[in-house]
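User: two proteins, same treatment. go.

Assistant:
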Amino acid sequence: MTMTDTSPLIEATGLVVRRGGNVALQEVDFTISRGEIVTIVGPNGSGKSTLLRTLIGAIRPSAGHIRRAPGLRIGYVPQSLHIEPGLPLSVARFLALPRPQPADRIAEALNRAGLPDLHDRRMTELSGGQFQRVLLARALLERPDILMLDEPTQGLDQRGSADFYRQIEEVRSELGCAVVMVSHELHVVMSASDRVICLNGHVCCSGAPDVVATAPEYRALFGTGTKGALALYRHTHDHAHDHDHPQPDHHHEDHAI
């Protein structure tokens, strides 16, 4: 792939995922292109994490198709990762697992994640925000074409969350990678998104943040308090044609997980 390649990095059509006899995802379509930031929102149990794990190949869909660009490099940041408290594992050693990494590659990833001086710190001594940034650094080691984050700021306070998401925008700007974020922090994340997908077992609606915020399907799930918790400002990196928003993709299945 080249930087000028405009074909989708991932294109999924008609995804159906069944888990434990239940339908977790029903007829979900998804695409993302290079440089785009897409946020997936939805209530608990709506299939957000399942969709992300299906897109990266960790879950096999029951039906539908996923096309990934040839040679696609994916960086994945999970919700959390447990490390035994007594394990004397440094940050640099953690980043060198499961296979050794060059010292300069580790240093570059830590710099991009905003942790330039923590090579020798023990993983168990990190704050919550530092720990999540180390997970981000690990995802950046392979210089991904697409960065996928599954509620990466869970457990952080609002300032820590905002700092983390600013770091994500810097990473996107530096690497030119696409970003897919699953989040419940609507007020923090949506303002930085190019596109929002509202999920509840199926795609309820999708489009630019202000379009989704006014969609009846979105308001039915999240209400209208605090304007639906959507911050409707746009950043200076947005394109000049942002006023030409795509219309929501409405799906009328009455299905919820």
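Protein 2:
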Amino acid sequence: MKFRHVLLVALTPVALFSCVSTKKFKAEQEKYNTLNDSYAKLQGDLKACEDAKAEEARKKAALQSEIDALNKQIAYLKENNTQALKQLQDLSVISSSQAESIKKSMENMGAKDNYIQTLQQQIARKDSLNMALVMNLKGAIGNLDDKDINIKVDKGVVYIDISDKLLFKSGKFDVTEEAKVVLGKVATVLKNQPDIEFMVEGHTDNVAYKGNAQLLDNWDLSVKRATSVVRILQNQYGLDPMKMSAAGRGEYLPVVPNDTPENKAVNRRTRIVILPQLDQFFKLLERK
């Protein structure tokens, strides 16, 4: 019994030592594995950096080659230009005064180009204003039958065509009450544009005039219809008479041939022409 007790006491330290060593070994083994993983990651990062550095060096070398090639081309062109100028001087192709004249011509060409661009900008601005005017007119007049009134822009000029069926009775030049309402709407838009000048034109078909003895022919009728409209715009709606003019075109400016009753009805019209502001255009020319 004593022997067993002694043996147990003797083996206990050995067992404890063995247990402690195993735990320490496992801990060191885990630490080693962790360090080894970190080392492998750092090795991967280092290789990626070296690869990136090599790629940047390759790109830099390629760019330097392109720069060297371009510099050679520039040097070649400079040399050729110098030789060409020397040949021109030797051959006396152009004198110094001629060279100066060419230089001035080139400068003038640049000025002309700027001038053309300015004119194009002015034309574009005028076109925008014309389209705004057309939209305002159509909005003011509303849903009137297109056969009775037509508003359009043609070659930079705004036209308002009003059918004589709406404005006048056959062979007459007194404006109808219905037409006065339409003219009032047109006048409202024109009055908001005080710088606008316009012409009222009377047009007829080619049927010979037979009516009032005071009128000789379609010329007289077209003029009287134009002046009737102008008076309404001035006296009833307050438009500035200095901004208006009246004209009769008779039968000599038809929209369509006078070969059918329908076409003749189209040609019988009164046209309001928004006149281009030529004085401003000429001022623009004078500044150049």
